[in-house]
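Input structure tokens:
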């Protein structure tokens, strides 16, 4: 980000912000599901697996939209 700002490269700055947001989204999903698993409120049931896959798909869709805007 510092280099992009130094070079006044708005496109790189937007891409870096999108990637950072993308990584934070993945971290949120991981933290939620890992926390539930460790605290024993998560099982390997089909329902939990469906919820995890649904959140990942939504996250991937958001990433695609972000990249298309950059």
């Amino acid at each position: 980000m510092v280099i992009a700002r130094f070079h006044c490269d708005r496109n790189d700055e937007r891409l870096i912000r999108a990637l950072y947001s993308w990584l934070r989204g993945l971290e949120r999903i991981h933290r939620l599901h890992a926390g539930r698993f460790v605290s024993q409120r998560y099982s390997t049931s089909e329902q939990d697996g469906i919820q995890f896959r649904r959140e990942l798909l939504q996250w991937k869709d958001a990433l695609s939209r972000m990249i298309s805007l950059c």
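The two ends are 15 Å apart (CA to CA). The chain has one domain: 2-69.
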